[in-house]
Amino acid sequence: MLAAQLHADGVSAALAGLGGRLHDTVHLPLPADTAPERLLAAVAEAGAGLARASRRRILGFALALPNPVTEPDGTALAALHFDWPPGAPVAELFAAQVARADLGPRARGALPTAVANDANLAALAEHRHGAGRDARHLLLVTSGHRGVGGALVVDGRLHTGSSGLALEVGHLTVDPLGRPCACGNRGCLNAETDPEALFAAAKHRPDPGRPLLPQARELARDPAAADAVEHVVDRLGLGLAGLVNILNPDRIVLSGLHLDLLAAAPDRLAAVVAERCLWGRSGRVPIVPAQVAHAGLVGAAELAWEPCLDDPQAAMAP
Ligand SMILES: [Zn+2]
């Protein structure tokens, strides 16, 4: 299989086997032109290059995107990182670009393709291969380069709502007077607990020459930034408590910057969640760090495998 992930600052692609294993992986910067067709052509070519070099027959190709993706039509909403127009038909465009790509001498016919939100795919990866194994109601919350994503896996299946847009947890209000959010409101979890929020709380400016997330992860582990970490942890706790009261998960997995916030102040985070959960037991839900490296890619690989595992004979037909 081929799996790919679009990030705010680059493209990753990997050859993937069964069991969450990634083989050859490439990470490339974003092309100068991030219009949907151009960017998806770059993703298709990154995967096709791996396929040609491996000389393996590829059976499917799936892509993780850092924005909501509607179901079943596969349009991208609020793709703010790339300045895409609202409702870009990303599933259709990706399929067209993969169909044009040269997948090597063993390619046969049209390759099945799929696209989905990266937080959803990371949750799937954690449930099958990481910190979410055996959880029945697994809630994943993560902050990557900007904003906050969430996902819920119930009995092994993603809960994506009526049109793919469930668990957009980033717009939970955790401070009515807080920082402005891209949605037009103030104090959303997005704007209060992402890397920019941590830098603002610490009154530090990130180095513009380096990606934001690794700098924020370093800051979260810096004892000199303890007050800022506590400020952001308290807001993350408020958001998690709201989600726990609504969803009653049996495990919460945190990833991205939230993993580092958990590492820096685990007792404080658990205490804020417990204090805001009135039902006693629901507030004692285990909050654990994510375990899967490149979880978005691993989740995309799981998505790519689905049609093949559902009907192996059709997938392997010459
Ligand atoms: Zn918002």
UniProtKB/TrEMBL annotation:
<dbReference type="Pfam" id="PF00480">
    <property type="entry name" value="ROK"/>
</dbReference>
<dbReference type="InterPro" id="IPR000600">
    <property type="entry name" value="ROK"/>
</dbReference>
<dbReference type="InterPro" id="IPR043129">
    <property type="entry name" value="ATPase_NBD"/>
</dbReference>
<comment type="similarity">
    <text>Belongs to the ROK (NagC/XylR) family.</text>
</comment>
<protein>
    <submittedName>
        <fullName>Regulatory protein</fullName>
    </submittedName>
</protein>
